[in-house]
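[recover] target loaded
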């Protein structure tokens, strides 16, 4: 008899369950997709959860290889992965290499304009108030993170940016921006360290084809562009992440066979 897993948290596109070992969790990637802020909408993109699970596994493993701390332990199946439990820091860090999203809209800079240097933006995780942009002063004054935590988060984000920019460029993709979430993970001696949590996928990265500038990320859904599912599939294919039997299943889903 299958034992029902205890749900810890249910988000917009993932469900978090209690893990099989102490201080671990199971992340289940669903096919749900949501836009945020001013034009909220929800839909289902078939197989998105499977594809994002594979992409995030691949990227987190590459980060581990270069000693960038993250919560990933192992993939359990096509939709689930086991991760270290972490004390989440309620701050999203967005790193922009090119003008996009909120930065482009509020500063009037055309999307895709290369910035003089990478720019980091902080957002307080509060969906009821559209995850407002905040300053370091807000973060430290309200105790969401201390100055040392922020320094470490920024240092990690800059390293991730250098690595991901090269990784994506190697498969013909421009990294426009990405969002990172962080938490504190305890080791067996009860020492804590800052680590990347959540995911790194087309859901929280803006990715454009280097030659055509085609959007290969969640913006295809946000902006009502055709075939958003193909963007996710394209990223996975460029990294050769999809087994042939799964590709056939996805192709059949797309054609209605």
């Amino acid at each position: 008899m299958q034992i029902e897993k205890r749900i810890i948290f249910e988000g917009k596109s993932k469900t978090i369950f209690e893990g099989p070992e102490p201080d671990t969790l199971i992340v289940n990637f669903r096919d749900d997709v949501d836009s945020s802020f001013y034009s909220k909408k929800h839909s289902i993109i078939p197989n998105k959860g499977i594809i994002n699970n594979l992409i995030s596994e691949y990227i987190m493993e590459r980060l581990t290889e270069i000693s960038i701390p993250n919560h990933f332990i192992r993939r359990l199946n096509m939709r689930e992965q086991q991760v270290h439990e972490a004390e989440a820091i309620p701050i999203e860090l967005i790193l922009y290499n090119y003008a996009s999203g909120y930065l482009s809209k509020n500063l009037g800079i055309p999307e895709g304009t290369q910035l003089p240097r990478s720019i980091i933006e902080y957002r307080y995780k509060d969906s009821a108030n559209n995850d407002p942009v905040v300053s370091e002063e807000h973060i430290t004054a309200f105790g969401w993170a201390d100055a040392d935590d922020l320094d470490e988060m920024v240092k990690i984000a800059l390293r991730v940016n250098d690595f991901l920019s090269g990784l994506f460029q190697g498969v013909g993709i421009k990294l426009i921006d990405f969002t990172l979430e962080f938490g504190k993970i305890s080791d067996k001696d009860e020492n804590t360290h800052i680590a990347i949590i959540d995911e790194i996928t087309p859901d929280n990265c803006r990715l454009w084809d280097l030659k055509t500038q085609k959007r290969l990320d969640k913006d295809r859904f946000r902006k009502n562009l055709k075939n958003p599912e193909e963007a996710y599939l394209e990223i996975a294919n460029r990294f050769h992440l999809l087994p042939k039997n799964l590709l056939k299943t996805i192709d059949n889903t797309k054609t209605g066979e």
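[recover] notes: The CA atoms of residues 94 and 179 lie 4 Å apart.
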